[in-house]
Automatic annotation (TrEMBL):
It comes from Paenibacillus albilobatus. Belongs to the cytochrome P450 family. This is Cytochrome P450 YjiB. It comes from the Bacteria. InterPro entries: Cyt_P450, Cyt_P450_B, Cyt_P450_CS, Cyt_P450_sf. CDD domains: P450_EryK-like (cd11032). GO terms for molecular function: heme binding; iron ion binding; monooxygenase activity; oxidoreductase activity, acting on paired donors, with incorporation or reduction of molecular oxygen. Keywords: Heme, Iron, Metal-binding, Monooxygenase, Oxidoreductase.
Amino acid sequence: MMQEKYANMLNMTELATPEKMLFPFDTLRRLRHETPVRYDSNRNCWDVFRYEDVQRILKDSKTFSSERGAGAGSTILFMDPPKHKQMRDLVSRAFTPKAIQELTPRIQSIAEQLLDAVTEDAMDITSDFATPLPVIVIAELLGAPKEDREQFKRWSDILVESADDLSDEAFRRITDKRMKAMEELYGYFRNIMGQRAAEPQDDLITALMNAEIEGEKLTEKEIVSFCVLLLAAGNETTTNLITNGVRVLTEMPELQERLFQSPDLIPAFIEEVLRYYPPIVAIGRKATDQVQIGDQTIEKGAQVISWVGAANRDESRFVEPDDFRLDRKPNPHMTFGFGIHFCLGAPLARLEGKIAFQALLNRYQNLARASSGSIQPIQSSFVFGVKNYPITMHI
Ligand code: HEM
């Protein structure tokens, strides 16, 4: 999703090693303390680290715009009011928490099937479980036929694939690949829409085609863009929520027994994973005017990066922010954003997370990081996660 948004933006120098990317939080703490608002000339953007400042930026969509202009497509993520509200109202009708809740039995059976396919006492949690689960869920939700699933996953992977290195060449290669996948996906969804027009189904695409406000329907382009956004915004993030959560369980194994004994703590566990190891660590905006944040003056037109990964551990908002606590209440992390763009898929991500951990903890004990092989961070300036996470477990 936001990868495309900052395709030309390098990671910041302070975090540009694999070790830092696997654990950026000490660096983010230092930056929050030393330079809470600062300009980075390498990346030509401002970085903001404090909770209060991040919240203010995300709240003020007038001064801090999501618009990206030409090439951004017509996705709500990159719209400002009033267009954003109209579009969000429309898609929210098809994407209600109730509609999501009804997916529970399907998500459960997909999770169980994936784990049934694991026949040994070891797996890569990322590729065996955390990656396919959200892809299959979203494919079903949209109404993509089963036989297209492989192809669907390929497209979905390309949309979120990150460059192997930070060279211009690597970025160009990945951008070309992504554009091609995008074109194919547009054709694919346009085709499904044609079929649904002739024969409506009980799926999200049909619902989006029928939704209207004051007699106005979504255009074909808007529907297709929204479907593509769901893939790009919903899959890798949810994958990382699950993998990051398993990473927590292996780093703090005492949590496994606790959650097994009290499964009703799983939602609190998910919220704390979102805060502690957030799948998204940074969110971008553009200043529409000259504006003061802290003791810095940000010029009109500047890129502003809000580090939710730093805000989530701000000691002015969270007690013992570097401790993982199941009893953290309230837990006002900003991993799903804040304000008008607050993640539309949050109920789905939370539900998938809950079901994933219920399934894992029901089935396995002693989840541990496998001793063989090193783990690789995802190379990205806004996503926090690992490419692979091999584990062992007792069945
Ligand atoms: C927006 C995070 C899962 C769909 C956002 C934003 C964040 C976010 C931070 C706001 C971006 C901004 O303000 O610029 C996450 C995380 C997820 C997750 C951490 C998983 C743990 C999902 C899922 C879906 C989804 C599963 C749907 C299938 C969307 C959409 C928006 C959005 C449509 C745009 C909302 C708007 O602009 O009004 N997400 N997301 N997300 N997310 Fe998610």
